[in-house]
Amino acid sequence: MTAHLILSLLVPVAGSALIVLLRRNENLREAASLVTAGVLFAIVLRIYGAVSDGARPEVILAEPFPGIPIALEAEPLGVLFALIASFLWIVTTAYSIGYMRGHHEKNQTRFYFFFAFAIASVMGVAFAGNLFTLFVFYEVLSLTTFPLVTHAGTEAARRAGRVYLGILFSTSIVFQLLGIIWVYAAAGTLDFAVGGILRGNVAAGTVPVLLALFVFGIGKAAVMPFHRWLPAAMVAPTPVSALLHAVAVVKAGVFAVLKVTVYVFGIDFVAELGASNWLMWIAAATIILGSLVAFTKDNLKARLAYSTVSQLSYVVLGAMLANSLGVIGSGMHIAMHAFGKITLFFCAGAIMVGAHKSEVSQLGGLGRRMPVVFAAFLIGTLSIVGLPPTGGAWSKWFLGLGSLEAGQVGLVAVLMLSSLLSLAYLMEIPLKGFFGKPAGAGQGSGHDDHGEHGHHGAPKWSVAAIVVTATACLVLFVYPEPFYRLMTMVTGP
After folding, report:
1. b/e sequence 355-366, b meaning 16+ C-beta within 10 Å
2. Where is 76: in which H helix or E strand?
3. How does pLDDT run across 358-383, given as a tens digit for each residue?
């Protein structure tokens, strides 16, 4: 099984090389991307089966410093993240085929090449066996996604790229790296361990400070005030936005916060000291403020971006609750938000390509001509809000229970208020689409019936991907078992 861990890195890298070799034939190039994604998912499924049976495969790739190796280990939380990322790579690749062709994007080979490299980085983050390995692949992920953020090549894209790297690198070097050095000095190891490695090695009064270094230092989690890179990156093509918000970057951030809390600090140790109490409220403030800013955005992708800022802090909040129910809710929200938010971004891209509309105020009546796209947006909205019959209901339920168990009734109120705000600013889109009046005479005429597009202008491949992710939101309400089982293995009996 250790070979499977190595293959989880090598397969996407090999796929990126194949993509370049086949660059002159777009059909073969895209087939190579799809096949590579499918092979990776099959590998991760094998790892999932072994970990579910109690195995913990591990392998050391290199040892650049004595006693500090670059090592991979498969444990339940990492497997959960790897399952989400590898499956959604397949779906996002299918979506990208329709979007990139339909939108006539340039440099498509470069897009698929760096997309594959980014997924390899994600696998490294998911299966990191220690803090050093996590840090290395976290930084590589920033570098491999930078060309995707700046894909358009415009001045706005280059400016967004500078903000992207500037915030992510500065937070990781100033805060996260300092935290890693502190942990090594205190514990003598950077290995992840059940129950954490800091009990008995650090003074109680320093734990809240050390924990804050990781929460703010893992800038990809987009906790305010280090969130601005995320909406700035929305100048990228929609498949990149989907990659950032659902498959790779932000999920790597909140995953890292959760993993460090569980396997470096230990939730029992954090709870005993009350070390995370103030950080709970930082996360709560981000949840509410992100929602309020989303209300002000007429641009659909910008609205979804600030929604993501808000929703990511649900995962941080669950980690800071430092109890089993909160951690289960946190891990499940990584999964449920991934499927819900990628559906919303897919729909936004389909509307852009099919109807050439990007503002919420322009969407009146479009749902009657793009019913599948707007129905999928409705399903994704319900999942983000946390309403049945969608998977998002489960993560919100466990986060609520975790807040009650921690005695934080105020946080339950925050969760409820946030859900109401999300319902208001997201539900406006399908309501406008199905029941609103067109923004102007002839809206969409000349754009909604291209011969190569199969759904009123929305590319067939993109619509197929939207149907898959929207259906997954419904299936995960009925069958959340794989993710729930993995998270119960993380928290123990």
Report:
1. bebbebebbbbb
2. helix 76-102
3. 899 999 989 888 999 999 999 999 99
Given the structure tokens 């029941």, which residue do they identify?
A: 435
Q: Please list the alpha-helical segments (H only) found in 127-273.
A: 131-149, 155-171, 177-187, 207-217, 229-232, 238-242, 249-260, 267-273
Is the Cβ–Cβ distance between 212 and 320 less than 8 Å?
A: no
Q: What's the rounded Cα separation, in Å, for the pair 352 and 477?
A: 29
Which residue, chain included where needed, has tokens 């959604």? Answer: 88
Q: Which domain holds residue 62?
A: 2-440+452-491
Position 445 in a domain: no
The residue among 260, 245, 284, 70 whose CA lies nearest residue 172 is 260
Q: Which two tokens stand for residue 238?
A: 């929609």
Q: Is residue 292 part of a domain?
A: yes
Q: 184-219, pLDDT tens digit by residue?
A: 999 999 999 999 999 989 999 999 999 999 999 998
Compute the CA torsion angle 114, 349, 224, 385 (nearest 10 deg).
Answer: -130
In a domain, 223, yes or no: yes
| DSSP conformation class of 154 | S
Q: In one letter, which amino acid is 221? A: A
- Measured CA distances, 491 to 87, 357, 378 (Å): 24, 45, 33
Number of structural domains in the chain:
1
Q: How far apart are CA 232 and CA 79, in angstroms?
A: 30
List phi, psi (to 5°) of 171: -65, -40
Q: What is the pTM of this model?
A: 0.92
Q: Is residue 323 part of a domain?
A: yes
